[in-house]
Specification:
This protein has three helices and ten strands, in the order αββββββαββαββ. It has 195 residues and is an alpha+beta fold.
Length: 195
């Protein structure tokens, strides 16, 4: 007799853990002072975790949600303000760190905090086609051709941003370029000048 075939129906998920209410609801004093992690943040090499500071339970109709304020350490950097978790508290993605492992996790975060900070650039060179259009336009109008072809960079706002954006003429620690970089298959570009 052959074994039955099992077919899963529905959306797949990457969540691994429990909801926040399942964790704090079973702890003394709702887990204030304990450390939790989200499994989706474990993809980063730097330590990411949250220390519970305050918990507020929700009305019965919202049984799966809970308001929790945490001291958040994201990618090795402790965020300056408390973070409120409410909208994502129902997701089964939280894990409680055992008490005997908390000291090791806090120590690893302090080691990362001592590393130099990342400064992102505030400008980037223009794409090659845009440069050509600008040169043609300036020549047509009889204006002096530009020496630097740069344009400002804009970043999406994120409360989890640990990198700082360069101010004024400050030198960034990371550089972004418009070049192709090193091609995966150099033979495809034989005889073509790469810039």
């Amino acid at each position: 007799m052959s074994s039955p075939v099992i077919k899963y129906v529905g959306r797949t998920t990457n969540f691994k853990g429990k909801t926040l209410w399942e964790i704090v609801g079973s702890l003394k004093n709702y887990g204030v002072g304990r450390i939790i992690i989200r499994s989706v943040f474990q993809r980063y090499p730097e330590p990411s975790f949250m220390k519970i500071v305050k918990v507020e339970t929700c009305p019965d109709e919202e049984r799966r949600r809970v308001k929790v304020w945490v001291e958040k350490t994201f990618r090795g950097k402790k965020l300056p303000n408390l973070t409120e978790i409410y909208r994502t508290s129902y997701k089964p993605d939280y894990n409680l760190i055992p008490k005997h492992e908390e000291a090791k996790l806090l120590e690893s975060a302090q080691n990362y905090e001592k590393l130099s900070e990342v400064i992102l650039p505030n400008t980037i060179e223009m794409p090659p086609l845009m440069k050509k259009f600008i040169v043609k336009d300036y020549e047509k109008k009889g204006l002096e051709v530009l020496k630097d072809y740069v344009m400002p960079l804009s970043y999406n706002h994120s409360p989890n941003r640990i990198q700082r954006i360069a101010k004024g003429d400050e030198k960034p620690t990371v550089q972004f370029t418009m070049s192709l970089g090193k091609p995966a298959s150099p033979s495809l570009y034989e005889g073509v000048q790469l810039q």
